[in-house]
Prior knowledge:
This protein is an alpha/beta fold. It folds into 3 domains: about 5-270, Alpha-Beta Complex (2-enoyl-CoA Hydratase, Chain A, domain 1); about 305-480, NAD(P)-binding Rossmann-like Domain (Rossmann fold, 3-Layer(aba) Sandwich), CATH 3.40.50.720; about 485-700, N-(1-d-carboxylethyl)-l-norvaline Dehydrogenase, domain 2. About 50% of the residues lie in helices and about 10% in strands. Strands 12-11-10-13-14-15-16-17 form an 8-stranded mixed β-sheet, sandwiched between helices. A 6-stranded mixed β-sheet has the order 1-2-3-4-6-9, with helices on both faces. A 3-stranded mixed β-sheet has the order 5-7-8. Helix 20 (about 510-520) crosses helix 25 (about 610-630). It starts with a strand and ends in a 5-residue tail after the last helix. About 45% of the residues are buried.
Amino acid sequence: MSADYQLHGDVAVITLNNPPVNGLGYATRVGITNGLERANADPAVKAIVITGAGKAFSGGADIREFGTPKALQEPNLLSVILAIEHSAKPVVAAVHSVAMGGGLELALGCHYRVAAPGAQIALPEVKLGLLPGAGGTQRLPRVLGVETALNMIVKGDPVSSEVLASLPGQKLFDQMAASAESLLQEALAFAAQAAARQAAGEALPLVRQLPCKHPQGDAYFQFARNMVKGMAKNFPAPAKCVDAVQAATKNKFDAGMAFERAIFVELMNTPESAALRHLFLAERAASKIPDVGDDVKPRAIQKVAVIGAGTMGGGISMNFLNAGIPVTILETKQEALDRGLATIRKNYEAQVKKGKLKQDKYEQRMALLTPTLSYDDLRDADLVIEAVFEEMGVKEQVFKKLDEVVKPGAILASNTSTLDVDKIAAFTKRPQDVVGMHFFSPANVMKLLEVVRGAKTAKDVLATVMQIAKKIRKTAVVSGVCDGFIGNRMIEQYSRQAGFLLEEGATPQQVDKAVEKFGFAMGPFRMGDLAGNDIGWAIRKRRYVEKPDMKYSKTADLLCELGRYGQKTGAGWYDYQPGKRDAIPSKLVEDMIAKHRQEQGITPRKISDEEIVQRLVYALVNEGARILEDGIASKASDIDMVYLTGYGFPIWRGGPMKYAEQVGLFNVVESMKRFARNPLDDARFWQPAPLLSKLVAEGRNFS
Ligand code: 3HC
Ligand code: NAI
């Protein structure tokens, strides 16, 4: 049973005990109701305290149980809270560390609440595409007032217990404990007093009995609804939170509860909630590497060095400076070093100007940065990240030098986006210490970090990089060594499809619009213009030699031959006005494509937006499945994390692999077979990956 029962004099203490965060799973719920029964049946017990073991009071409903029969099995959370309210003896919640979601709702069902300072209090269900489903929308407004409660419910962000306790008129906490250490003692004393007051005839208070009103009534809720709709766009939950809180102000308590419950169930079945719950679990799963257990101790990282102060080197350095870790940055020429430093300064100063960074913080960060032209200054670095030109010869020079000078045990990482990490590792006598750390541009902004595991990369090196990634607030996903790693290997197939679509009859703007309507931050052609079409051109030129039988549309090459590299040359797939970023459809490009079609003997056809989206997204799915088969990614959810955090895939669709599951793998495979019959497409590519076919045959999903 995941709740302990102990007597402290005449007070019974029920301690939730379901690591890691005392999620309110079935066994915990049973533990609580059993404890309540036992305490109420024991004449020696006068009052009850509910608290949590370890690092949380409770993180809420057990997310791992969602979608399983156990989630619904009685006693469900509503029944547990009802049992608390019905307890004949006073029940005091002793809240510490984390009281979130169902955990806070449980506390709100108790007669009294005593809190430790520093506890994070939240109803974060909205971040899972839900609303609080065990009375949170009905009880929180009654103790904090409608506006404070609605803000917390709609945003889902934690607020500290002392901030809430200081709000005028709040009824959330009856008492603040002096510290987390003294919480239990203080809660026990409070419970004993409550029992004495009850014996003297005082009734047990219930949050449900408190009034719930807003002075402006419906006008306030209409205002709130408009605000929320503007912010929430593709997510239905936030607006529903407003409806539920409004219901608390208009209905009797039980009717409000029924209203909340109905919406909770409705939201639970939305694809948006499924995607967000997937994201929550996928993000945490990504940090776990199947063969690197908790017993693998990470190395200590106190000093970092970055080689190359260009676009990536500067951004990479900023991540560490932001986390308070000193960085030494090395260049070959003073001029390049100065330029790199000036860019870092400029980026920080822009943040200061916008009020996002305080001047003194900016100065503290810059003080942690040491520029150098000498490898001697890297001797004591614990982690070195190379971000020099993407040429094997240059990488060889750098890694040989690092091998000579850097202390034993230091981690040597490369930010290469296309080169073979195993080859780079072989330039050193310590390949076990070499790893890829593939940041995305702008490196100080983008969340994704692909951690490239070489054939010889040591386990503790991986554990260290995963740990440091968390420190610099990146989402790290492990990839094996292959051309393009996870993200770029897949995007190449997506780009190829975009090219075929142009040949067959689509315009760049039609493709971009369709994909952006699906939810991508940017379509492939606008993206190409932003990143520079010459990058893809260089990769294709290599491919034409390495893989002569691979089929490509020539349209992108023709564009580059015209010098239309994108925004940086003032023209790409679109036209641009000087100093502006608005993509203007280009007649010249349209004519260029039309001429190319004519030369190829292609009669253009009308292509639906649906076909565009399917071909681009399913190209990601098919290559993703091959990446899984090849063992480059260890799980499908890692691929989703790469696309959600690095490639602007719509969050509410959960990533390409999750999306494919939602469409149904059978349907996805059927579409692939259809695409394979299109003579202008690449029939070989559209052979469904064997893993996909196998899953369909077995009626299974990636997960
Ligand atoms: N249920 C089950 N497991 C949970 C959980 C939950 N509610 N919340 C967190 N966990 C697990 C994580 O999956 C992770 O597991 P792992 O170690 O196996 O990967 C572990 O706890 C630690 O999580 P974090 O890495 O996030 O640890 P932090 O210390 O950084 O944060 C936290 C702890 C603040 C509790 C954070 O995990 C969090 O925000 N959790 C989500 C809480 C939440 O959304 N609760 C609402 C649930 S829905 C609900 O209650 C419905 C109700 O209204 C009916
Ligand atoms: P960049 O050209 O902006 O910067 C490279 C810097 O390295 C220059 O400042 C150059 O002076 C310096 N340099 C060259 N040789 C050196 C040496 N021997 N020692 C020290 N410094 C040296 O290039 P960018 O874009 O920053 O790319 C760097 C690396 O990051 C490449 O491997 C690239 O593939 C990778 N990458 C680039 C991304 C991007 O979007 N630009 C994204 C992800 C990875």
